[in-house]
Design goal:
Number of strands: 0
Distance between the termini: 59 Å
Number of helices: 2
Radius of gyration: 20 Å
Helix content: over 70%
């Protein structure tokens, strides 16, 4: 799908950008949570 002019790009682009932003935010949050859990487990195993 090739947009014919700038206004079509303007209408199409923001929606995927928004979805990408939300998806990346969720994705990063999940990875940070997993990383924190791993750090806590490693820290606990060292000092117990």
């Amino acid at each position: 799908m090739v947009p014919k002019n700038k206004s079509e790009i303007g209408l199409i682009a923001p929606i995927p950008d928004f979805i990408t932003l939300v998806f990346c935010d969720i994705y990063v949050s999940i990875w940070c949570d997993l990383f924190c859990v791993c750090c806590v487990l490693m820290f606990d195993s060292q000092y117990n």
